[in-house]
Write a structure and sequence with these properties.
alpha/beta; 10 helices; eight-stranded parallel beta sheet; 265 residues; TIM Barrel
């Protein structure tokens, strides 16, 4: 495994927080003048063309940062309802070959396509979000290890978001061993490991939740660490919440008219 990420973008704002949303929560040009980072969600459901990544990178201002989610064919099994959004259904005879980091040609090909798009986009962080069905079995852990020790890790950081019931010591051990950033909603659980902090704010009670002023004050306190920190909002009113939090941090924020988010959790 090659792990030669230099972290230049992150190092330049150590001790600060970059705020954005999961998906473009407004028109791209307006977004670029409002936030310094976006997490691309579309890559989880259906990978865009590489040329689209090139176009998005070229259209963004200098210094703007892209992160993205890994394609679901790597992390989720075909029984997931999110597979309905694939352009082509998975043939029944191949369904056992996808998801859960399986050591199969199909998962490796899904990764190769994910990596190609990430390179075109210039993504600095790739988020591997696992479903609740990805439990800490010996098979799942072995496949996770095999995947992250055999892929090329040059030029980007791997961030791991769990949704199942995993013991803290197991999470910490694997993140240390595999150099993974532990992704959490910090208003719900602490991040256990990472050279950076990567937070995804899903809403305390679900997607329709609006973060209160008290929530954002708590988040500000959490962000007061000596590590580069990303705060990506992923709730219905993600744009409004992100702008409010950015203003609370004392960063430049553009006033927004009310609008609802367009990304999914």
């Amino acid at each position: 495994m090659k792990r030669t990420y230099q972290g230049d973008a992150a190092d330049s704002f150590a001790g600060q927080a970059k705020v954005g949303t999961c998906g473009f929560a407004m028109g791209q040009q307006e977004y670029y003048t409002t936030f310094p980072v976006v997490e691309i969600q579309q890559t989880f459901y259906k990978l865009p063309r590489v040329s689209t990544g090139v176009r998005w990178r070229a259209g963004a201002p200098t210094g703007f940062e892209f992160t993205m989610k890994a394609w679901q064919l790597i992390t989720h099994e075909p029984s997931s309802p999110t597979y309905r959004r694939l352009a082509k259904p998975i043939p029944p005879e191949l369904k056992a070959c996808y998801g859960a980091f399986r050591p199969t040609e199909e998962v490796l090909e899904a990764w190769a396509q994910t990596r190609a798009f990430a390179a075109a986009l210039g993504a600095t962080i790739i988020v591997f979000q696992c479903p609740p069905s990805f439990t800490p079995t010996s098979e799942h852990i072995a496949d996770l290890r095999h995947f992250f020790t055999n892929i090329d890790r040059t030029g980007w950081q791997a961030a791991w978001e769990l949704r199942g019931a995993w013991a803290a010591d197991v999470i910490l051990g694997l993140c240390r061993e595999l150099e993974l950033v532990h992704v959490v909603d910090p208003l719900k659980a602490p991040s256990l490991h990472g050279a950076i902090c990567y937070y995804r704010l899903h809403g305390l009670t679900g997607y329709r939740y609006v973060h209160t002023d008290q929530d954002l004050e708590r988040l500000k306190t959490v962000c007061k660490r000596d590590l580069p920190t990303y705060c990506l909002f992923n709730n219905l009113f993600m744009a409004e919440d992100a702008v409010r939090f950015q203003a609370l941090l004392g960063e430049k924020a553009k006033p927004l008219r009310a609008r609802r988010g367009r990304a999914e959790p």
